[in-house]
Inverse folding.
């Protein structure tokens, strides 16, 4: 009986050692080395407004409500204030106008809100309630879409500069070509309608190709010009491509 017990122990030990030496099965859906990996696409809401125009106030109020309805893990909101000769906006940013031109070539007018780039667009706002309903509908159309990219971003703020380090991983079993990675710096001014004010846009970095399972890194660094309170600064990192319709955001994340 003792010999039998010893024999059973040696068999189990040998089996355990064999299994431990075997490669682990990569079935984690977020593991870039898993050919079936994927994750849900975060919805990036980009609002173009001018605070001096009457209908932009309705849009900004609706966006405040939208932010309360969805987690930042699922929906990210930024508000660009457009410069105008006729309407002076204290938060206007010249770079916002460039971003607006990149997204739309037709019928520019504020408020104008885009959801993952040109995939969804809601223009105008007759009142806050109606605008919120339209924004929620656009978000619902995008929120369950699958992405084959994952982003991880870390921001570091010093007294004079902001640094953002990004890792991009390609999920799934196929490569991807011609995309850009950019970063949007926004500030929460802690006042109604101004919780996501864009202060700075980092120049995007272009990539010609990324293989399945491959990771790439991006490093952004810039000054803190225009920032009121560095404690209220956030950074959204976006990955996008140019399609026949315009710019499409394939994935986004909030830097930690």
């Amino acid at each position: 009986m003792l010999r039998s017990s010893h024999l059973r122990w040696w068999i189990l030990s040998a089996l355990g050692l064999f299994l431990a030496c075997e490669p682990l099965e990569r079935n984690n859906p977020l593991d870039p080395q898993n050919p079936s990996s994927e994750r849900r696409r975060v919805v990036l809401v980009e609002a173009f407004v001018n605070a001096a125009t009457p209908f932009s106030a309705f849009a900004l109020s609706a966006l405040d409500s939208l932010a309360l309805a969805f987690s930042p893990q699922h929906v990210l909101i930024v508000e660009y204030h457009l410069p105008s000769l006729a309407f002076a906006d204290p938060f206007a940013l010249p770079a916002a106008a460039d971003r607006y031109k990149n997204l739309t070539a037709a019928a520019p007018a504020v408020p104008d809100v885009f959801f993952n780039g040109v995939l969804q667009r809601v223009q105008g706002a007759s009142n806050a309630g109606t605008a919120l309903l339209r924004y929620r509908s656009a978000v619902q159309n995008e929120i369950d879409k699958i992405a084959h990219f994952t982003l991880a971003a870390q921001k570091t703020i010093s007294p004079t500069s902001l640094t953002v380090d990004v890792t991009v991983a390609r999920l799934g079993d196929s490569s991807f070509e011609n995309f850009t990675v950019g970063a949007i710096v926004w500030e929460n001014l802690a006042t109604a309608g101004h919780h996501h004010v864009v202060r700075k846009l980092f120049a995007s970095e272009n990539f010609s190709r990324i293989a399945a399972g491959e990771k790439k890194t991006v490093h952004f660094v810039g000054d803190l010009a225009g920032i009121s309170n560095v404690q209220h600064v956030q950074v959204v990192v976006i990955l996008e491509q140019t399609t026949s319709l315009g710019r499409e955001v394939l994935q986004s994340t909030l830097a930690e």
User: Anything to note?
Assistant: Residues 8 and 14 are 10 Å apart (CA to CA). The chain has a mean pLDDT of 88.
